TrEMBL record:
Any one Gene Ontology BP term: tRNA wobble uridine modification
Protein name: Hflx-type G domain-containing protein
Cofactor (UniProt): Mg(2+)
Protein residues bound to Mg(2+): 248, 269
InterPro entries: G_HFLX_dom, GTP-bd, GTPase_HflX, GTPase_HflX_N, GTPase_HflX_N_sf, HflX_C, P-loop_NTPase
The organism's taxonomic lineage, starting at the top: Eukaryota, Metazoa, Ecdysozoa, Nematoda, Chromadorea
Organism encoding this protein: Caenorhabditis elegans
Keyword Nucleotide-binding: yes
SUPFAM superfamilies xrefs: P-loop containing nucleoside triphosphate hydrolases (SSF52540)
Length: 468
């Protein structure tokens, strides 16, 4: 069982707390087992059983199947929507009649595992469903965590995944050790060796989390030094959106980054990458491509990606990309905004610094303009709307970074000229006016401040020009 093996590795590493992060969550650890999965979406007949009640059940089922098929060692052999009365919290999720139908369906499909499409099953639900179906039971948390483990490439992402797993292990170990549950650890996807460990497990897990957080801090610090960001005064434009909305495609289109490969796959991107582009104003901006969001996930899973998402909080501008061809774009938008809030993006930023962009307008299923007002409509595939988007980004960046165009009338020997070139502020070559050169430069607040301080002695002709 793949989660079991990974957890064993994690738990074994508890004995040696100095274990390196490279040993955490190695993706190959679960590559050997293959699962034929019956995917079931419990549709709540009435009341709110799901965080995203807006979503259509068939779309939710489709997404769950895609999540399962995304994993190389899993194959969704059958899928169905099975209604539940009022919520998904009852011990076996469904009442007996529906359970019988599900057992028959599992047998007919020869499924070797069941995926219940809820954010997280409780330990007692997982145990009860195992007792009934006699196959491993997965929830969205299990599948997404396995996906993260499979596709994470960098140390930063791997450490964050290891941190994300700790509350899950803690919760389950607690349920087992408090004897509330007479279950086998492997049924709950935690390692059966946990009981071999001497000492207070909570304490060991706490220490482990502390060590991982420290490691993460070091790795993050090291990465910040290697970002390839040209200049700290470059504006940061974070591209966020639901998984598979086209974030990587957009960053590639805007920056021409050859290293980016868009994929028709959920969570293709797990690590943040940064790419530089020049805006029409001549200012450079760093576009960041980052992990996509997904609905109905235990919050700590995304929260664990805090280091990866930290740049979003401090970004000058956020592009919220929506896949407008997806019938659930509205619900996905709400999920993304809720996640942004939960990682600490303020209402001010959400109101003032966000650009809503509708992608995939080339697709037949794209919703018309009237349904998604106040947004820029584009297609990363055909390039439609890209010029308009670049202008909108340009204006927003100029506004947020308080950039101003300043006309400078300078003698050819003026020391200002060297300073302008040194700071890469000359985008358009100067024009000549008699003995003077006329520069139109765009400077942000801090550059204007530095300029004023350095050249305070220059004779000022008027507020927007100096001459020497
Ligand atoms: N038809 C069409 N397909 C698009 C468009 N933009 C992106 N795609 C496709 O959508 C899929 C996902 O694109 P990505 O750019 O990888 O999406 P993402 O948001 O980075 O996805 P994750 O990193 O997995 O969250 C790929 O198959 C793209 O080729 C578009 O405008 N039109
Ligand atoms: Mg991506």
């Amino acid at each position: 069982m793949f989660i079991l093996r990974l957890s064993r590795q994690t738990v074994l590493s508890f004995r040696n707390l100095s274990i390196g992060s490279s040993e955490v969550a190695a993706p190959s650890a679960f590559a050997n087992d293959r699962w034929s999965v019956l995917v079931v979406h419990p549709k709540v007949r009435w009341g709110s059983g799901s965080a995203s009640v807006l979503k259509q059940a068939d779309r939710q089922l489709e997404e769950a199947v895609a999540l399962v098929d995304n994993l190389p060692n899993m194959n969704a052999v059958d899928s169905l929507i099975m209604p539940v009365d009022y919520n998904t919290k009852r011990k076996a999720v469904w009442a007996s009649g529906n359970l019988e139908k599900l057992i028959a369906r599992r047998e007919a499909a020869r499924a070797t595992a069941l995926m219940v499409n809820v954010d997280a099953l409780s330990p007692s639900q997982q145990q009860e469903l195992y007792r009934i179906f006699e196959v491993p039971i997965f929830d969205r948390y299990n599948i997404v965590l396995a996906t993260f483990k499979q596709f994470a490439k960098t140390e930063e992402a791997r450490i964050q995944i290891a941190i994300a797993e700790i509350p899950y292990i803690k919760h389950r170990i607690h349920a087992l050790s408090s004897k509330r549950l007479h279950s086998r650890p492997d049924i709950l996807h935690i390692d059966s060796h946990y009981s071999d460990i001497d000492g207070d497990l909570n304490e060991i897990l706490r220490k482990r989390e502390q060590d991982l957080r420290k490691e993460l801090k070091d790795v993050t610090r090291k990465n910040v030094g290697q970002l390839g960001v040209r200049n700290s005064s470059d504006a940061v434009v974070a591209v966020v959106g639901y998984t598979n909305s086209g974030k990587t495609s957009l960053v590639k289109k805007l920056t021409g980054a050859a290293s980016l490969t868009p994929k028709d796959q959920l969570f293709a991107t797990l690590d943040t990458t940064r790419h530089l582009a020049k805006l029409p104003s001549g200012r450079s901006a760093v576009f960041t491509d980052t992990i996509g969001f997904l609905s109905d996930l235990p919050m700590h899973l995304i929260a664990a990606f805090e280091a990866t998402l930290a740049h979003v909080k401090s970004a000058d501008v956020i592009i919220h990309l929506r896949d407008i061809s997806n019938p659930d774009w509205k619900a996905q938008e709400e999920d993304v905004l809720a996640t942004l809030k939960s990682i600490g993006v303020t209402d001010y930023v959400l109101n003032e610094r966000i650009i809503s962009v509708d992608n995939k307008i080339d697709k037949e299923s794209a919703f018309p303009t009237s349904e998604s007002n106040n947004s820029v409509r584009i297609s990363c595939k055909t390039g439609d709307g890209m010029h308009e988007l670049i202008d909108v980004i340009n204006d927003k960046v100029t506004m947020v970074t308080k950039c101003k165009t300043i006309r400078l009338r300078l003698d050819a020997r003026s020391p200002v000229i060297e300073w302008l070139y040194h700071n890469e502020l000359v985008v358009i070559e100067p024009t000549i006016d008699g003995n003077y050169l006329i520069f139109d430069v765009v400077m942000n607040e801090s550059e204007i401040g530095r300029f004023r301080k350095k050249f305070a002695h220059l004779k000022k002709k008027n507020s927007q020009s100096v001459s020497l």
